[in-house]
Design a protein that fits this description.
Number of helices: 11
Largest sheet: 7 strands, mixed
Strand content: 25-35%
Helix content: 25-40%
Shape: globular
Structural class: alpha+beta
Radius of gyration: 23 Å
């Protein structure tokens, strides 16, 4: 990653929301950490699309994007699917900022860089965009699906450029049938931390857990485009978001005193993503959790730690949360962008120690909502209709209580809601496959605390 001066890095802020008060003997401390980045995605108040690129070709910091288009045989059923995929990729190419490095990969049971070819990246301008769109017109469907090979080629292409932001956009319409799950996992492990990737499933013949797993491993977004005619709009939006990123490789560093155990670290907005197992040790008392690329945006994280027992009146620093930008050479001192403190105070005031912070309560419910939707859909698929009814009823209750209207609407296509407040529902006898897959794919999307 390229180095930045302070003026070039978006300004980061960290806010900590918690109830620091514990009863005597209490150990669990929960905090919601809101991270906000401002200054990315705009230049001096000018919309990004109207601004001159901060860096020209070959001038170091910038962005590189690889578009991976499924060209397997199933993309011809119906034929409009392949045409819409070509059109969507062309729309994304039109959205590229001048000077961005880019390539197009056709994915089947093998991967081929169809533009510009020969293991290179093109530099976006009017001419290269036109050439790329001409190359897209020649794409045709045929062959199998081995997504790991697409990702490995994208990795080689992206890492051939000296840029700050490395991003992939991946479209598939089918299951990853021409390589083993272990091969895909190995490819994801190899690519993790090297580039971010948004993944999309088009139609209804793909595997939700494969697509969401790709996005989770590579810190991107996942979604369904059930109707191929919606691809162009979705691809344009994804590319606009990618072009708004200004800084990559930001880590959430958690420092804890001796005796403090970390239970979990999760992103909880805009979507739930468990980062606990992705910790890399920074030093004896601190570990880093990856957050990916940032533009103008705000995200929330739930940090839960166990502190040693202490007596009434005692207090301690339970954790220090910092935003870290590593030195690209690995030799220098990482830059601390912002930080916040998580505290623990022991009290005999029952009202204080039993009060749950609104942010903590809200996001605990949102995480449970994502979990019970997955459990309910899995139960429904396995024929456990009583279990499915119970879990999806709880999901309706949580969605209603938290004001998550988007998820509530998706749930209403899978269950008939008798009473949202109590979670009383009936499973629908017939559910459209697209509706079930949309609910599963978007189950981790959350809403923020109502002010």
């Amino acid at each position: 990653m390229a180095n930045f001066s302070k003026s070039q890095v978006p300004q980061f802020s960290v806010e900590v929301y918690q109830n620091e008060y514990l009863p005597e003997g209490g150990r669990e401390v929960n905090a919601i950490v809101t991270v906000t980045s401002t200054g990315g995605g705009t230049t001096g108040g000018i919309p990004l699309a109207d601004a001159a690129p901060a860096y020209g070709a070959g001038q170091g910091p910038g962005a590189a994007v690889v578009l991976m288009v499924d060209c397997s045989g199933s993309m011809d059923y119906p034929p409009t699917k392949m045409r819409n995929a070509r059109d969507a990729t062309a729309a994304a190419i039109d959205t590229l900022r001048e000077g961005t490095r880019f390539a197009v990969v056709a994915g089947t049971h093998v991967a081929k860089d169809v533009y510009p070819g020969n293991g290179r990246l093109a530099v976006a301008d009017a001419q290269t965009k036109a050439q790329a769109k001409e190359a897209l017109r020649k794409l045709s469907a045929g062959g199998g699906t081995a997504i790991g090979t697409w990702l490995r080629l994208a990795d080689r292409l992206l890492n051939s450029a000296d840029v700050t932001i490395r991003h992939g956009i991946l479209l598939t319409d089918g299951r990853n049938e021409h390589e083993s799950p272990e091969d895909l996992r190995a490819a994801l492990d190899s690519c993790a931390g090297r580039f971010t990737c948004d993944a999309r499933g088009v139609g209804t013949d793909w595997e939700v857990k494969e697509v969401t797993g790709i996005a989770a491993a590579l810190l991107g977004t996942a979604d369904i485009v059930a109707d191929p005619s919606g691809l162009a709009e979705d691809f344009t939006r994804m590319m606009e978001n990618a072009m708004g990123k200004e800084v990559a490789d930001v880590a959430l560093r958690l420092w804890t005193p001796v005796g403090v155990e970390i239970r979990f670290v999760k992103q909880v907005a805009p979507a739930v993503a468990d980062l606990t197992a992705r910790r890399t040790e920074a030093n004896a008392r601190a570990g880093d959790y990856p957050t990916g690329s940032w533009g103008d945006e705000s995200r929330d994280y739930h940090v839960c730690v166990l502190v040693p027992e202490a007596g009434i009146g005692q207090e301690m620093l339970a954790a220090r949360v910092s935003l870290i930008l590593p030195d690209p050479s690995g030799a220098g001192t990482p830059q601390t962008l912002s930080q916040g403190l998580v505290r623990a105070v022991w009290t005999d005031d029952m009202v204080a120690s039993t009060s749950i912070n609104p942010q903590v309560a809200h996001y605990t419910g949102q995480a449970e909502l994502a979990h019970v939707i997955q459990q309910g859909l899995d139960a429904r698929k396995s024929g456990d209709f009583d279990g499915a009814t119970a879990k999806l009823g709880r999901a309706v209750q949580l969605a209603s209580a938290s004001g998550n209207q988007d998820t509530a609407k998706l749930l209403s296509k899978v269950v008939d809601v008798v009473d949202a407040a109590t979670g009383t529902v009936r499973l629908k006898a017939k559910v459209a496959e697209a509706d079930e897959m949309t609910l599963e794919t978007r189950s981790t999307k959350t809403v923020r605390v109502k002010k």
